[in-house]
Amino acid sequence: MLSRFLPDRFTCALLCTVLLASVLPCRGATAQLFNVLTDAAIALLFFLHGAKLSRAAVLAGITNWRLHLTVLASTFVLFPLLGWLLKPVLSSLVTPDLYLGVLFLCTLPSTVQSSIAFTSIARGNVSAAVCSASASSLLGIVITPLLVGVMLESHGRGGMSWDAVGGIVMQLLVPFVAGQVAQRWIGGWVQQHKPLVGLVDQGSILLVVYSAFSAAVLEGLWKQVPPSVLGGLLVLNAVLLAAALLITCYGARALGFNKEDEITIVFCGSKKSLASGVPMAKVLFAGHPLGMIVLPIMLFHQIQLMTCAVLARRYARRLPKGLIVTAGGAQVAQAD
Description:
This protein is mainly alpha-helical. The protein has 15 helices and 2 strands. It has one domain (29-317): Na+/H+ antiporter like fold. Helix 12 (227-254) packs across helix 15. It is globular. The model is unreliable at 322-336 (pLDDT under 50).
């Protein structure tokens, strides 16, 4: 039971990276080199995701359009609204730059791997989860920059520049599309070497985090984020996740979804992607204190993993082991 609440290896790696950046931040020519390596790693990451994402798997669950619209509404409408509505509370707990990071967190797409994994553990509609999470990740490349542009204008920091939009297209969308095109030749190889994709995935995030926090530390990050502010950020992330989980759960029941679809909506509609968020932040917030922007995402990532791990097991206990759950004649989950 205790192990469920302990950080995983990647979270430990993130913490070590932040510690390394705090003690030994990169600067000058070294910082420029890390920026080049980071850009290359991010492009490779989205290329591999494009090559890995099976179009057939996505099409398998696409007919459940009410579920997918509900998940997308939660991801790109509910979360931004929560960020706005909680502004009076948030402003008193965190600094303006951290609040901007929280708003950016609210615009991000859902995760892919963990949303599907938790839906499977909870014995929900896995095929629909594949479709919803994948669609959210792909649409986020377009929707997130648009929402960020609205946020920046409302904060008096200027709208989204065409350079930033072009940066997203060239660094994220173009490699992703190239991966989709190359899928017929390398898709099988990528599926057989999933640890490689995971290594690039986590490695690119660690590179961005190290570069971002190095620059932030040199600008006095930890003087601007005392323990009281960090504690406030943890509380607000927990409140944000709790609100999203409750609304998606009871909203799915009010809309008449069955239990398997409810599980998919809860896990796909309440999660935010660290893998997409960190690379996007690097492109969209050039000139802003990037360390402040990505800190809320890092904390939310760990809170959502710990909470959803417990929630998935709670859902799973509703069915006896070995039972196959079906929806519309198609298998959607099987007990562990």
